[in-house]
Write a structure and sequence with these properties.
11 helices, transcription regulation, 3-stranded antiparallel β-sheet, GntR family transcriptional regulator, single chain, transcription, 3 strands, WH_DNA-bd_sf
Length: about 240
């Protein structure tokens, strides 16, 4: 499908939000975007409404659009529910995936692997996000897919340090994550629901400490999110 200024604006804003090129809570200037992309105000507002519906931005009456913020409440809710939704999506993906979707997943994994080898952080963020989006598409569930999409936005933003490893241990964790993706593909091909769900929790544990590195400097008590109620809920669901 040919790219248009409108589709370019949509894809660019999504990418910039996921990769933190646009900070949480950043204002979006309708006039400057209209000029930059050669669009009138109406299609820009259409894109804003679409992105707002998908959870990327927030449109405030008489105050314009802004990148969806991240705050204490956002983070708490994310850590409480993300693994459970990922596990439910994984189980349904095994039940409902189409061969073409598995092929898409494999191609996305190869791009993710190449990005990890090149230490291309922005490409890793986007390909990892796409990998998990495909799981949502495989699930075919109209209730869970929007929730997954919203979670993935914050997962990319909170976990961006994972794709910028600062030491050998973080590099090792990144390679384990690449291996997890391969194992997801194998488990899907084998129609093994339990293996996929087990992998979901392993994958989550792997990235959790790196996410904590992102939020701890902001004075947020990650321990409160990563243990207690969240842990109890995960144990009950496993």
């Amino acid at each position: 499908m040919a790219k248009t200024p409108k589709s370019n604006l949509y894809e660019d804003l999504k990418r910039q939000i996921l990769t933190m090129e646009l900070d949480p809570d950043a204002d979006l200037d309708e006039a400057s975007l209209s000029e930059r992309y050669g669009l009138s105000r109406t299609p820009v507002r259409d894109i804003f409404r679409r992105l707002a519906g998908e959870g990327y931005i927030d449109i405030r009456e008489n105050r314009g659009a802004r990148v969806i913020p991240m705050n204490h409440s956002t983070l708490r809710n994310f850590f409480l529910v993300a693994p459970m939704i990922y596990a439910a999506i994984g189980r349904l993906a095994v039940q409902n995936f189409k061969p073409s979707q598995l092929s898409d997943l494999k191609q996305t994994q190869e791009r993710f692997r190449a990005a990890s080898e090149n230490m291309d952080a922005l490409a890793m963020v986007l390909e990892n996000n796409r990998f998990h989006e495909i799981f949502g598409e495989m699930s075919g569930n109209v209730y869970l897919q929007p929730s997954l999409g919203r979670l993935l936005i914050d997962h990319a933003r909170i976990g961006h340090t994972f794709f910028r490893p600062r030491n050998q241990d973080m590099k090792r964790r990144l390679q384990v994550a690449v291996g997890h993706h391969d194992s997801f593909i194998d488990a899907l091909g084998a129609h093994d629901e339990n293996a996929v769900v087990d992998l979901v929790f392993e994958h989550w544990e792997l990235s959790r400490e790196n996410m904590e590195m992102f939020i701890a400097p902001q004075g947020l008590k990650a321990d409160a999110f990563l243990g207690g109620p969240a842990t109890q809920l995960l144990e009950k669901s496993s």
